[in-house]
Amino acid sequence: MLVKFILFSLILAVIESRQCTVKESCVPVRTCGPILEAIQVASQNRDQGLRQRTIEYVRQNICGRIDQQRVCCPSDNPSPAPVPEQEVYLGNFVTIIHDVTGEVYAKGTNKIVIKNLTYDGQGPDAFFVGGTATNSPSDSGVNVVLPYPFKGRHFGYKDTSVPVLPPFNGETIELTLPPGVDVNQLRWVSLWCRKFGISFGHIILA
Fold first, then answer.
1. In whole angstroms, what separates CA 139 from the centre of its chain?
2. What is the pTM of this model?
3. Do 6 and 51 reside in the same domain of the chain?
4. I need a surface site. Which of 34, 83, 114, 154 has the fewest CB within 10 A?
5. Shared-domain flag, residues 110 and 166
6. Which residue did the predictor score with more confidence, 176 or 44?
7. pLDDT (mean) for 125-154
8. Which of 156 and 46 is assigned the larger pLDDT?
9. Residue from 112, 121, 117, 115 nearest 101 by CA
10. Residue 80 has pLDDT above 70, yes or no
């Protein structure tokens, strides 16, 4: 095997190792992608010159003690993609009026996702709200405002600049909780009309 031949050559022929740069890490030769790729190419080629150059390339990158078979490998590879936050199904909206329906999910600890959302858009002052202290929607129980679309700003319940919801016809939307409020603290979420103090549709979580 060429790999064994290369490693054997390293042990016999390398006189001293080198220091890795700040953009490199000293890792086992078998875990370094670029070097493994070079070895793979050489192992599939009968060109003795290529094989010799590959051996020399590996020798030039040896670090640490020779018997450890470690090499300087680039450490500025792209970081792995973040794992998407898992969505946990919470239930469906109970329809009250204005054709409100939707499937509700928790996403992480600070987001609510509503899928297949429907709403006729006829409420004059309607937006999403939640409560952490009462067991069902009420004007006095609203202490969490969930603005949509969320543009980085959170609102108090009496803030007249809370964006009013447009109609929806099966869309998926994401609501962001304000700092200090966890999804697990919510007892209910409602598509609520502040002007009339009523819920157009809601889900009870407690």
1. 35
2. 0.62
3. yes
4. 83
5. yes
6. 176
7. 96
8. 156
9. 117
10. no
Q: What's the number of domains the chain is made of?
A: 2
Whether residue 181 is found in the same domain as residue 106: yes
- How do the residues of the chain divide into helix, strand and coil, expressed in percent and rounded to 5? 20, 35, 45
Token digits for 189?
A: 């979420």
Tokens 């962001």 identify what position? 176
Mean pLDDT across 161-182: 96
The Cα 51–Cα 146 span in angstroms is 63
Q: What pLDDT, in 10s, does the model give residues 135-146?
A: 999 999 999 999
Q: Taking all residues of the chain, what is their mean pLDDT, rounded to a whole number?
A: 87
| 111 and 67 together in one domain | no
Name the pairing type of β-strands 126-131 and 94-95: unpaired
Which of 25, 40, 74 delimits the end of a domain? 74
pLDDT for the residue numbered 155? 96
Percent of the chain predicted with pLDDT > 70: 87
Q: Which residues, 6+ apart, have CB-to-CB distance to 203 below 8 Å? A: 90, 91, 92, 93, 94, 104, 188, 189, 190
What is the dihedral sign for C-alpha 43, 46, 51, 54? negative
Listed in order, strand segments (DSSP E) in the chain are: 24-28, 62-63, 70-74, 87-92, 94-95, 101-107, 111-119, 126-131, 144-146, 168-176, 188-193, 198-204
| Amino acid symbol at 137 | P
